[in-house]
Amino acid sequence: MHVIVGITGGIAAYKATAIIRLLTEAGHSVKVIPTQNALRFIGATTLEALSHNTVDPDLYTDVESVKHVELGKAADLVIVAPASAAFLARFAGGLADDLLGNTLLVTGAPVLVAPAMHTEMWQNPATVHNVEVLRERGIKVLEPSTGRLTGEDTGKGRLPEPNEIVEAALGLLKPKDLLGQRVLISAGGTQEPIDPVRFIGNRSSGAQGLSLARAAKNRGAIVTLIAANLIDLPTDLDSVIPVRDSNELADSVHENLAQNDVLIMAAAVADYRVETVSTSKIKKSASGAGIDLHLIQVPDILKSACARVKSEQLETLVVGFAAETAGSVQALEELGLIKLANKGCDLLVANDVTGGAIFGAPKNNVLVLGKNGQKSKSEGTKELVAEHILDRVVQLLK
């Protein structure tokens, strides 16, 4: 496959080397098109050595070949990483004043853009507008990560990790096998209030649910995400419903269940909540050396959704998740089969969280069990695991 990697001027340009290496090691032919400003941060020699292709210095050499047209037509995929605020503005405005800009106007290949800039620049109304324009045109614009930026600042604007960029880009080439399907996905972890300040929560980051939502969107689905306490709400999905506790999550699931073809319950829902929530902050001076909380069981949202699908004869396919401290693959399968039968869902995704594994990690290791007796395993990044789960969903929908 012919892949163009565009690089624009920014301190994160050095990370493009890892993107190029991942693509070449996977067997793809890579042509790097840096802007003149990008070459201030990374040398053409490095890019040529990694890509095994020459780097054109500008638009005005070898003009007899009309190289921007040749490159654009030959490309199967285009990745621009990092993408600066200036690049986003030029691309949204259709400006083509260099080789990269001209190639982008020519190509009919899928294009993924990975922005990297300071938080204030990312949140500036001009940048927000430019991103919206590009997304409306079908350009895949990744959300920047949150982390350390140039200088002493920390915030949203950091370039996503190279493997995430490559996997998201390759995901654009996935068949649109969920085209028109309505998919409801929950992600994150519920927070059950104790008082206005404190809550009972869990360690779920919501990363796997977000990966599922974006992968389903890439496959053509109409995606509604129920986001339980996610720090950064995604803007590249069809609908996002923020919720806090299990009551709000349950209400959102049941309000949207009937009009969706697939329900994926990836959110980590608390098993217990406080029976009586204090309306004011519980003071240490008033509670003494200890505090007794009476916990009651939270209604099983997954089980009730499955029961409703059966009782109302809905055609909604239901995927459940189970985090278990199993300790072995055999024990995980046994626990997963019990839960699969108890919940009544079509698929159950089980993972072993012994020792706090999986939570907050970039990778996952799951066992996918079906009520028809089929089972499969997937290990790797959460994006890769998401694709495997959706492959199983597509099989059942067919």
Describe this structure in words.
This protein has 398 residues and is α/β, with parallel strands linked by helices. The chain is 35% helix and 24% strand. It has 14 helices and 19 strands. The protein has helices spanning 16-25, 44-51, 67-74, 85-92, 99-106, 119-123, 125-136, 162-171, 207-218, 246-256, 284-287, 301-311, 329-343, 382-397, and strands spanning 2-7, 29-34, 77-83, 111-115, 140-141, 145-148, 154-158, 182-188, 192-193, 199-200, 222-228, 239-243, 262-265, 272-274, 295-297, 317-324, 347-352, 363-370, 375-381. The protein has an 8-stranded mixed sheet with strand order 12-11-8-13-16-17-18-19, with helices on both faces. A 5-stranded parallel sheet has the order 2-1-3-4-5, with helices on both faces. A two-stranded antiparallel sheet has the order 6-7. The longest helix is centred in the C-terminal third of the chain and has 16 residues, at 382-397. The two termini are 29 Å apart. The mean pLDDT is 92.
Features of this protein?
single chain; 398 residues; alpha/beta; 8-stranded mixed β-sheet; 5-stranded parallel β-sheet; 14 helices; 19 strands; globular
Give the strand order, joined by hyphens, for the main sheet. 12-11-8-13-16-17-18-19
Quaternary organisation of the protein chains: single chain
Strand element count? 19
Tally the helices: 14
Distance between the termini: 29 Å
Average pLDDT rating:
92
Uncertain runs are none
Percent of sequence in beta strands: 15-25%
Shape: globular
Rounded radius of gyration (Å) = 24 Å
Q: Which class do the helix and strand fractions yield?
A: alpha/beta
Query: Share of helix among residues?
Result: 25-40%
Q: Please describe the biggest sheet, giving its number of strands, its sense, and whether it closes into a barrel.
A: 8 strands, mixed
